[in-house]
């Protein structure tokens, strides 16, 4: 009988290598380790409280709650005070400018030579008030002596009222859009259908229409009531302007040879009855029209 020797059979399975698992990285701190003590944080503020301040006692304080070996960042350090009563301005009698009550206002005082607060860029506070100036709510202690009796009051600032100052103005100058200078000129149109010996001479010496903006103007003068017996003062005139801004419903004419004011801007005319080179024909035409040769006629 054949004998089979014992044999070892080895089977090998192949598979893909597993994906490596990424490990958790540890935190890395670079630079110094800062410790904050902030006034704005109620918890941190409590551990840096230095206690009540006594202005009559010089006291040196250790840095509160500082850890051993720490270095203080002095550029970050600030000193805060709660409910502090600090003297930032003092005016002693006989030393500073006068401090006095305002007449009629028992709750106001005024100090000469000092501005307690800014009033725009043109009126800054006085330098003696440093970089802060007085503010609403600040305490005030006022003391005075009258007839040998000392009076004092502790109060606070409720507001500020600016002191009035005289207004100022600089010298006037010509505007770039101003009209150029112009010379005066005038002309006369006789629109009448009645011709007689009365002459009209306009005068511009006093005329000024710049206020209304009408340097150039056209005036119509109409006789609405005739004169009598060559007395021009008995006549009435109506003045109408092209702009409509210098109309006058009724104007009394001046005597012959005198100025009659036309409108309100200084224009004048002279009515006269001396006639001219054509006075003979004018008198004849007046007769043809059946009107007086020497009157202002409607």
Structure description:
The chain has 298 residues and is mostly beta strands. It contains two helices and ten strands. The strands form four sheets. Strands 5-10-9 form a three-stranded antiparallel beta sheet, with no helix packed on it. The protein has a three-stranded antiparallel beta sheet with strand order 6-7-8, with no helix packed on it. β7 (236-241) and β8 (248-252) form a beta hairpin. The radius of gyration is 51 Å and the shape is elongated. It starts with 41 loop residues before the first helix and ends in a 9-residue tail after the last helix. The model has no long low-confidence stretch (mean pLDDT 85).
What is this structure, in a nutshell?
This protein has helices at residues 42-46, 279-289, and strands at 99-102, 105-111, 139-146, 149-156, 199-203, 219-225, 236-241, 248-252, 259-262, 267-272. By secondary structure, it is mostly beta strands.
